[in-house]
UniProtKB/TrEMBL annotation:
This is YqzM family protein. The chain crosses the membrane at residues 22-43. The keyword Transmembrane applies. Keywords: Membrane, Transmembrane, Transmembrane helix. It comes from the Bacteria.
Length: 48
């Protein structure tokens, strides 16, 4: 490999499905934020 900056010489070792990565990222973040929201609502109702 003479020119290490040439992207054509780098083999994609692990092909990725970018759309599925995006969907899983949004889904995971939405789920996490939903859990945080639900806990915040429960805490607020317990305080008041």
């Amino acid at each position: 490999m003479e020119n290490v900056k040439d992207p054509r010489q780098h083999i994609n070792e692990e092909p990725r499905d970018d759309l599925m990565d995006l969907v899983m990222g949004f889904g995971g973040m939405f789920g996490f934020m939903f859990v945080v929201f639900a806990i915040a609502v429960i805490v607020k109702f317990n305080i008041s």
